[in-house]
Write a structure and sequence with these properties.
The protein is of the alpha+beta class and 296 residues long. The chain has 7 helices and 16 strands. It is rod-shaped.
Length: 296
């Protein structure tokens, strides 16, 4: 006997702690929670996915041994918030317990991170018609032109980007514009999707502001003027006054000027005249062609 008294061997006492080896620290990517309004099934699947990413089947399990049979291994987690909403830090305490109740512990750190940028899809490139020029005003008369220009290139008219993220169910979408060229004017719209952890992705959309509408022009009414004075009648005038007298009778200041408007820009008005003989030497027919040209 091992106590030398009753002739019966007493059970040996187990005072040796089991040994335990933790798995290596692990970093895993987050997954998205269920979106607002998701079905019960989608919510359940999202919960399962969130649990699975940090499960020991994914991050590793501790191993333990003891000089006596019957050692068991269990773990408990303490979860702390990470640096952004989709991240967290898990302190996993692994415990080995032998049949005598002796325990040993080790700690594994599991980091759930969001390092993946969202995916983004830009709307198709598009062409819109230009609007009127926006001039400074003190009475608010520029407001309609300003509103029309904004509406023409608004995403409501030219399309919106869409985005998805593995962790954030609703990444933020924004855009910025840069303009270049003239006739046509090109807007490069850069769309950006940003998740709650600051990861972002860009794509670009080209918006062409075109002007393919010609100005409208209104000619002055046809006019008839008296023929130019004879040389004898002009003999008492200076040479320069004679020229003014001859030309002035058909000048546009006398016979009228065309007017023009354009849907996008200011208009330049020019004219060219073709002269044909009339019914007698002192008469002639002038065909005056007026042309309105916009900035494009």
């Amino acid at each position: 006997d091992n106590d030398g008294q009753n002739g019966i061997d007493d059970a040996a006492e187990d005072i040796v702690l089991p040994s335990i080896t933790c798995p290596e620290d692990s970093t895993v990517e987050c997954v998205a929670p269920a979106a607002a309004g998701a079905s019960a099934l989608d919510c359940a699947l999202a919960i399962i996915s969130n649990l699975t990413i940090s499960d020991p089947t994914n991050t590793g399990s501790a191993t333990a041994s003891d000089d006596c049979p019957g050692v068991t291994v269990a773990f408990s987690d303490a979860v702390a918030a990470g640096s952004c909403a989709q991240e967290k830090e898990i302190t996993r305490t692994w415990t080995a317990t032998d049949a005598a109740g002796n325990t040993s512990e080790c700690i594994q750190n599991v980091s759930v991170v969001d390092s993946s940028a969202p995916s983004i899809s830009c709307p198709a490139n598009t062409t819109v018609q230009c609007t009127g020029e926006i001039a400074n005003s003190v009475n608010g008369s520029c407001i309609p032109s300003l509103v029309a220009a904004m509406q023409a290139t608004s995403p409501a008219n030219t399309g919106n980007a869409s985005a998805a993220d593995v962790c954030d169910p609703d990444p933020a979408i924004s855009f910025s514009d840069s303009s270049s060229g003239a006739c046509p004017d090109l807007i490069t719209r850069t769309w950006t999707a940003t998740d709650t952890c600051g990861n972002s992705t860009d794509c670009q959309q080209t918006i062409t502001i075109d002007d393919n509408v010609a100005p409208t022009i209104t000619c002055p009414a046809d006019a008839s003027v008296e023929c130019m004075p004879s040389v004898v009648a002009l003999s008492d005038q200076s040479c320069l006054d004679q020229i003014f007298s001859i030309v002035g009778s058909t000048d546009s200041s006398i016979t009228g000027t065309a007017t023009a408007t354009d849907n996008c820009s200011d208009v330049t008005i020019t004219s060219a005249s073709a002269v044909a003989a009339g019914a007698c030497p002192q008469e002639k027919q002038i065909t005056r062609t007026w042309t309105a040209t916009d900035a494009c």
